[in-house]
Amino acid sequence: MKYVLLYTLFLMSVFHTSCGQNRTEVKKNIIKSETKDTVTSNGSHLIYTYVPLRMVSNIRQERNGSILIAGTNSLFGGAVFRYDGKSYTNLTDKLGLQRFWDVLEDRRGNLWFASLDSGVYYYNGKSFQHFTTREGLANNAVMCIYEDKAGNIWFGGSGLSRYDGKSFRNFTTKERFSNNDITTIIEDKTGKLWIGTKTGEAFVYDEKSFTRLIHEGQAFYNVWSIIEDKNGNIWFRVNGGRDKGLWRYDGSTFTNVSQRGVNAIVEDKKGNIWTTRQVNPGGNGGVWALSRYDQKSLYNKKTTVTEIMLRVPVSTLLGLFAADDGSIWINTSEGVLCRYDGNTLADFKSKAGQQ
């Protein structure tokens, strides 16, 4: 196993969004990013710029290459920003103090924003439309958004909803869910949906029924991350319990690839699998590892793993995102956004409120 140790320093701050209406024209709120290049003790280059959020919950990429960043600033507010490599544009500055958690660009180029307490917002580039339980959403607490191959939009959180462009269909504990705390949704190449839950069981949905993921007579619980790789294998993270760690399912067999704790999973363009985990809790965030499982040895008895050690003052590395240019983005619970391109680790930190 190979190790690289990178030391990072982060600036923390608070950014406040302005109040507005649920349906309105967007007024651009643009914040220029400031960049610094410094060299760490081991010679690695760290590029510093600033994200105007305290906690970055999810990162996505638009078809034009821009990065969409969703996150919160407090118990009451948050925002969704578009980053074009030079500046951040607040896309939600007129929506009030909403705690945004996820963002999606659908196949038509429209944007969807999920919040933890106010339902979801649809933005067509000119105006917003607000969806809550009044419009048919299962619950106003939404943690994830997913578009399936048919163009339906799925919303997971305190319940599961499917929107076909006209109406919602909701799935709750009545459909054999063990609980309604949905954490992740993906569709595999066969059209089946894989659904992870926070404290309950993981399910597969085939348009007719929900089937629990069962291994050796027991269900997988507390599944937070699920992906499908280029070969059609399903990878997922189990957070604690008997089955803790990184798992792979090839359609017939479950394989426990690693029993180490895993926070997030992503596949890059080359087919490598990336994960994050906490190595040493320690003080001030401790040491975290960005791990790469080499594509060439994924199915060997012993997989080649390269670990990049990050000494960061954060409590959680929340997620990973693989960009079109091959870089890996990491979002954290303390508003630090990092990008790794194979040679350089760049961290994007919030400067708002320091003036």
From TrEMBL:
Give the range the annotation lists for the signal sequence.
1-20
- Pfam families the record matches: Reg_prop
Q: Does the keyword Signal apply?
A: yes
**Gene3D superfamilies, alphabetically?**
YVTN repeat-like/Quinoprotein amine dehydrogenase
- The name of this protein is Histidine kinase
Keyword GTP-binding appears in the UniProt entry: no
* UniProtKB keywords: Signal
